[in-house]
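User: Fold this, then the next.

Assistant: Folding the first:
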Amino acid sequence: MIQNNDFQRQWADIGGDVLAAVDRVGKSGWYVLGQEVRGFEEALANFWGVRHATGVANGMDAIEIGLRALGCKPGDRVLTTPLSAFATTLAIVKLGAIPVFVDTDEHGLIDLVRCHDLLRRRRDIGYFVPVHLYGHALDRDSLDWVRHEFGIKILEDCAQSAGARSGGKPTGTVGEIAATSFYPTKNLGAMGDGGAILTNDAQLDAKFHVLRFYGETERYRHEEIGYNSRLDEVQAALLRDACLPRMQRWIHRRKQIANAYTLGIRNREIGLPGAPENSDSSWHLFPVHVAPDRRASFLEHLKASGVGAGIHYPIVIPDQPAMRGVRYELTDDCAFARQICASEVSIPIHPYLTDAEVARVIDAVNSFARVRLAQAG
């Protein structure tokens, strides 16, 4: 079976560097918030092109702590997308803030023109959490236009977009803050959970450090109600030594595979949304679209062909059962987002796919229509 992610192949590549990193941490005798975290934070900031990075326990904490640092509080309204991992909205809800959902475009990215029109009519929305979904970069100029015209505070959710660029610059560098995740399936993934908050603002960075460690400003002095949200020394060490040095190679391979799929998939039943204009995608996922009533049979066909696949995401966030009783606002019917939820399928695009496997995926996708014609006959 061709897998969506192949961690065994990854281990064959990075295992030696991981074991050396773990050995170094073990010999140091320091396991929490030590030199490994500081070293990785410096390396990550350098990779991302920002001044500061703060390691935290996971990507959701990165969003919640980042919003707290920006001043977001219960009752504040936060503009965001209905199409993302639930963690994006959960971080907002945990703060007691009110998610305000705006529909996406055909690529699954929040529609910045709709956002602009909404903010022109309403001045009660002070925060914005856009998501660079699938590894695609939102248009930098459009996002900057929204920020400066309305003075809204922006935290960019970059959990899926490490290495992606717009206008030659990394995602996460328009707003005040970027949040990212090191969940194992991400382009920059750990062997466990983790996350980081990135910024060019030294005062915000100092705030992150206080909030991630119980709100402590000095030993046993707690100025705020903070969090226990710390990136482990072991995860920081292996991310810096084993993963970060390979990132450019991994992303280059993802782009090669995406290009092969774009050129090779020729099936009228399968839609290829591709990357948006002006997006230099890091291709965390490769989504294709199929008619909703055909999606189950398409997935079955791929499985029978030895190709793993997934769905990202089957339910828009406002429709999740957990949102019952939660205060939120829908500004439109989220028609694009709902259509994507009903039709999207993610085919394998991890960097350890061989050329032969890529060809097999293409053949499996292209043969789906022939299967249908055979059944009809």
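Now the next one, as you asked:
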Amino acid sequence: MRIIGAASLVTVCAMLASAPALADWVPPFKGNDTGGIIAYEMATTTDARQIAVDHCAKYGKVVKFLAVDPQYGGYVSFACRWVPYGADQQPLRTKY
């Protein structure tokens, strides 16, 4: 019985060692109703401002850019807000 257990342990270890280690794929743009991120590589080749405005407009909100990480693997982050900063308007009220 010990030989079978040892052989199966060696087989499992060999299978795990031979499998490639892959990271998950991340889309260049990801967001929800509170905001999102745009990959820096995508932001340099497309109009990131328009992408964020269109995304927030789907939820009836305006965009507020938060940060830019200008390096490989970096991102542009933004928030979707009900009312722009400094506006005299009241927040939108929605009924679900």
